[in-house]
Amino acid sequence: MAIVLRFVTLDDFVKERFFYLVHVTDTCATTLKKELISVLSHYNLQVENIRGQGYDGASNMRGESNGLQALFLKDSPQAYYVHCFAHRLQLALVSASREFQDLEKVNNGKEYALLNHIGKGLNSFHHKALKSCDDLMKQSQHIDRLLHKQTSEEIEKNRIRLGASIDCIIWLTFQGCAYRGHDESQSSSNRGNFLEMLKFLGSYNERVKKNVLENAPKNAKYTSNDVQKEILHILATKVRNSIREEIGDAKFCIIVDEARDKSKKEKMAIVLRFVTLDGFVKVRFFDLVHVTDTCATTLKKELISVLSHYNLQVENIRDQGYDGASNMRLQERDLGITNVLCQALQQQSQDILNAMPIVSTSKLLLQQLRDGGWCNFLANVKDFCEKHEIEVPNMSAQYVFGRGRSRQPSVTVEHHYRIDVFLAIIDSQIQELNSRFNEQTIELLTLSCALDPKDNFKSFNIEEISKLAEKFYPLDFSSNELNILKSQLQHYQHDIPNHLKGIGTLSELCNKLQETGKSRTYHMVDRLIRLVLTLPVSTATTEKAFSAMKIVKTRL
């Protein structure tokens, strides 16, 4: 059995190479397949990569049920069978010679079988076989020659068209602009951002102009919605792979939020927070996933699917951050006390140690407002109403609630506004802060403050730092490593404050340790600092992702 391989090289040349001559015990299809696979496997040529089969036409080769081509199609559905053109011509001539033995005896030779076989049109079987034979005889007409000549020109034009489309998509994506237009027909005065941008590029580049839009083939314009999505998918994959390389083996935090897009589909935004090898804290938007519903099990399933695809292990997650602050917006607008906390938490440079004092002061101010702020608050409201000519109700009057016969006076107007509105809002806000920062969270953050480098490491405490590692990060420190950490902290206490002065944040400290090489000396301390830095401060990045989504994904 002779084996020939046909393929296209990296430089776009078609090659046919005689590969092997194999002895076979018989010519049944199963034996031929077994020997053929044996040869291919020996040279690490996978059967799944076969994209075509060519045989001489024998039944054991071309049989649609049990032939060799049928057996290979079961293993590789894209290994399409094409009958050899040279053998087709031979079989056609043999068949014709058998049928046309008594040509002169039929109708005086005017309509005998040979003329019927030849046919009157150029598309007859005979003419096609003759043309195939003629092409095989001419070197200049060989498929590889024609294919190379044709593809080199087409590849260049396709690259120009595709490159222009990619440039437009990248620019529009970075600017947060929608792609599609309401009317994208040629007669439209505004065909949408994408097509107008492509037209604009062509006006400054003659090579682009000659190959895009109406000057492009109808089957290779690279402007369809599917092409745009495919290009975006490729770019997004490259970005996510880059983020994955940036994370490396580091522990990381997941920050997740969900919202609906314009088409009413639920989307889940995934943001990763981690510390790079050179000690910088990074918060990266990673993916936007469609979810069928927003129940916890569905969100977890989709989240794990995304992380697993990029080989991010769930065991390396050290913190989680989710959105729960929507019910705080009314209080912020009415009271204003939490505005400082709100603004601070949205800063990208914010780390968890700097956020902790602001949370404490927010609770303190809210409690002070609750205990003794009603009179000043009421006076300010009255001044505002008088300034803008708004009628102020009589605070001593009875407050009536209900309708019709159910209307009942119960308390004064002042009592209603003070108890049911003023205190209720403050209590709700304090409760939410206590809920988000429960006892365990408070302890975690309080212990973490012992690493704070502010005021020349004034808060440094070996016992609290050791407790932090032992209680909250048992998976990251073995008992032996905890002993090493305590030993390193004793040296760290006297060494670092004298060499690294004027540092204000934990992230800055992590970066300086890396720059000075101290992270290798105090590698256990550096590990703990990186774990604390992964703690999420806010979900502002996910909210920004949804804002961008609503701009890009419009009803068009």
Can you offer a commentary on this structure?
Strand 6 (266-275) and strand 7 (281-291) form a beta hairpin. It is elongated and about 115 Å long. It folds into five domains: 2-140, no CATH class; 153-223, no CATH class; 252-323 and 539-552, Nucleotidyltransferase, domain 5, CATH 3.30.420; 329-437, no CATH class; 440-533, no CATH class. It has 24 helices and ten strands. The chain has helices at residues 29-42, 59-62, 68-75, 85-99, 113-118, 125-137, 143-174, 193-204, 206-209, 225-247, 296-309, 329-335, 339-345, 352-372, 374-387, 413-436, 439-448, 454-457, 462-472, 479-499, 506-516, 518-521, 523-533, 540-552; strands at 2-8, 14-21, 52-55, 80-83, 252-260, 266-275, 281-291, 317-322, 398-401, 408-412. The protein is of the alpha/beta class and 556 residues long. Helix 14 packs antiparallel against helix 16 and helix 21 (506-516) packs antiparallel against helix 23 (523-533).
